[in-house]
């Protein structure tokens, strides 16, 4: 899943795509180099980020969604937690809502069900503005799993098709370095949820803290976490660097085929 970032406030400023024509160029390059999905976001969810209004978000994201859905057949996901935004982008042709709040807002799931769309249910403590404050878990993996289980129940109760629900443990969203490592080390335990696992580790701060590197130099760390994630059961990798990740995953896949015969 290739990330198309429409927010200049992103934690990775170099990934910012400032216009519709630029977004089309990035999308074309990502598809050519291995993307199966595109994920479009107009509001930054970096730690400490300030929220933007529904009107601001729509003004940024709608023109891009419209053009992507007209020009490409690849499924388009929109990274939003606002039900009003979800309704308009789904009407415009998007097919997945990537909700960082895990369906916190009760209107969201019925809207997704109405359009027979898919959903990514992600775990996050609080909001991007405060999620990295006072981080504490008694049982990090267990608490995340419980949260995702509730999100799955909410989605299915609203009528979202069971096979259109993905889960994301929310690497970097209200987690310290040790929590992110614990999630990665135990990612296979989320298989009990019986939903495809989406993993988003690309260039995140825990990689930078471990390697003492700025965001521009975290590619190798991102690829390492992608490999671990894949071996541990991740089905979708949400990344900035599609070409490099695709090549890495393809090679690992061939090795795993020899080991497991599939």
Write the layout of secondary structure elements.
Blueprint: E1 2-5, H1 20-32, E2 38-41, H2 54-71, E3 76-79, H3 83-92, E4 96-99, H4 108-114, E5 118-122, H5 140-158, E6 165-168, H6 177-185, E7 197-199, H7 205-211, H8 219-231, E8 234-237, H9 242-260
Parallel strand pairs: 1-2, 2-3, 3-4, 4-5, 5-6, 7-8
Helix pairs in contact: 1-2, 2-3, 3-4, 8-9
CATH fold topology: TIM Barrel
- How much helical structure, as a percent, in the residues? 40-55%
For the report, how would you describe the main beta sheet?
6 strands, parallel
Average residue pLDDT: 95
Question: Could you state the CATH homologous superfamily?
Answer: Dihydropteroate synthase-like
Summed up, the domain count is: 1
By secondary-structure content and strand pairing, the structural class works out as alpha/beta
What string, H for helix and E for strand, traces the elements in order? EHEHEHEHEHEHEHHEH
In total, the number of strands is 8
- The global form is globular
Distance between the ends: 22 Å
**Biggest β-sheet: strands ordered side by side in the sheet:** 1-2-3-4-5-6
The CATH class label is Alpha Beta
- CATH architecture grouping: Alpha-Beta Barrel
Question: Features of this protein?
Answer:
single chain; 262 residues; alpha/beta; TIM Barrel; 6-stranded parallel beta sheet; two-stranded parallel sheet; 8 strands; 44% helix
Q: Can you describe what's shown?
A:
α2 runs parallel beside α3 (83-92) and α3 (83-92) packs parallel to α4. The longest helix is centred in the middle third of the chain and has 19 residues, at 140-158. With 262 residues, the chain is α/β, with parallel strands linked by helices. α3 (83-92) links the parallel β3 and β4 (96-99). It is built from 9 helices and 8 strands. The model has no long low-confidence stretch (mean pLDDT 95). The chain has a single domain, classed as Dihydropteroate synthase-like (TIM Barrel). The strands form 2 sheets. Strands 1-2-3-4-5-6 form a 6-stranded parallel beta sheet, covered by helices on one side. Helix content is 44%, strand content 12%.
